[in-house]
Design goal:
globular
Amino acid sequence: MTLNPKAIPLSLYVHWPLCVRKCPYCDFNSHASGAVPEERYVKALLCELEREAEFAGGREIQTIYFGGGTPSLMSAEGFTTLLEGIRARVPVAHDAEISMEANPGTADEAKFEAYAKAGVNRLSLGIQSFDDASLKRLGRIHDRAAAVRALEKAVKIFPRVNADLMFGLPHETVERLRDEVAQLVESKTTHVSCYQLTIETGTAFAKRVPEGLPDEDLAADLQEAVVGLLAQAGFERYEVSGYAKSGETCRHNLNYWTFGDYLAVGAGAHGKVTTEDGVFRAARFANPERYMRAVEEGSEPYEEKRRVTEEELPFEFMLNALRLTAGVSKRLWTERTGLSDDVIADTVAALQKDGLWTTESDRIGTSPRGFAFLSSVQEAFL
């Protein structure tokens, strides 16, 4: 089957690689603030986007996501220049979701208002915890009071606000986590991203694992508490770590999970674009200086650029789609991979036999039991 890119939604991811300081658990591409001149980096982003625009194929950008790093370190002027430059280079839908990540430690109200005026309509705050001792262990630059203030400002200024919360922290109890979730609910945020602390290779925590991490049983109890408490407050768990009030799901992330396309610009940014010839992925140089120099010299700033093979597509599709609690429509499989149902039929039959797959014939997704063993189900498609 020939792929039809015009039938696939398109997003844009913009990576801002700077932070005040790097958190010991973080494995994202981030560098100390001041290492990169803002004006030069913004120019590089827009220069790269001019070249990437051809891959849009006339499609409108449905969502834009500014991630990092800490995008809220950008000056109001720099961000306005960047977003206006994006709109001048690619068609952006009039109702596009435009998201920005922000650190409560950089929650300047005047900047928030400027971001909103420029077009940001969804702010994602990296709260992580409301416990001062935990925040200190995590290396965060904010405390509980700053987190509360940031949320209060955000919900007044932006129509949609997401709050990141971590669980499975050192010395955490179910009781303390209950208090954390209650604080989020009181803040009137409409979306929560809640995920367990994991020790990632190459991080400071990997070199020196913190004491007091929960065992598997306690971690399961903490996860159960999060799901239950947020459900009571009217948040639906629609994705592994995503919880939303009705109508408040993150459109940008949904495009990832439904195997949509996304252009990407910035140091270390990863993109996925579908053409009639197949699905292509590209990763940019992680080092900001190397990235900017490549763009300025007119060369490709790619660490890697490749076509996803037909053998890889089943796992890549399922790695995303199965994160959704409801799964996805079966038609998306063929529409977004170009492959027939026969390619995955035997694997699906085996998973159904084991009670790990949905019984809905028109859906691709796990059963509730399969969702509990998600990694194993996804790996069945390797």
